[in-house]
Amino acid sequence: MKNWWILFRIGNTFTRDVPGHASVRQLDPMWIWKGQWGLDAWPNRLLSAALFCWTLWLGARLGHSVVGVFNRRADAVFIGVLRGWRDALARKMVSKDRRGG
Question: Cα 54 to the chain's mean position, in Å?
Fold first, then answer.
């Protein structure tokens, strides 16, 4: 791999570490490639929103969530709210189907 290299962030500057050569202090290794999108790009936001919705769905289905790490009673209340939302959404979808669209 002749053209292989990694950028290392040191403070606010970047240095290039080329294999086989002496390099400066190496902190915070980062992989950088052509075509990389930013952290606030729409694919990251879409993935984050999808994963958040999935965790809410899992919490309502399984009966426990991440809130349980902090407080079991708060988790029970949170799951009750999630299940209420899920049931209300299901009733709304069923009534919409019965009306014909």
Answer: 10
- CA dihedral (62, 79, 58, 92) in degrees, to 10, reads 110
CA distances from residue 99 to 26, 42, 89, 92, 93 in whole angstroms, order as listed: 65, 36, 15, 11, 10
Domain ranges of the chain: 1-33, 42-99
Quote the CA–CA distance of 6 and 33 in Å, as a whole number: 9
Q: Are 29 and 8 in contact (CB under 8 A)?
A: yes
pLDDT in tens, 57-100: 999 999 999 999 999 999 999 999 999 999 999 999 898 878 76
User: How confident is the model at residue 71, as a pLDDT?
Assistant: 96
Beta carbons of 78 and 67 less than 8 angstroms apart: yes
For the whole model, what pTM was predicted? 0.59
Q: Angle 42-62/72-99 helices, nearest 10 degrees?
A: 100
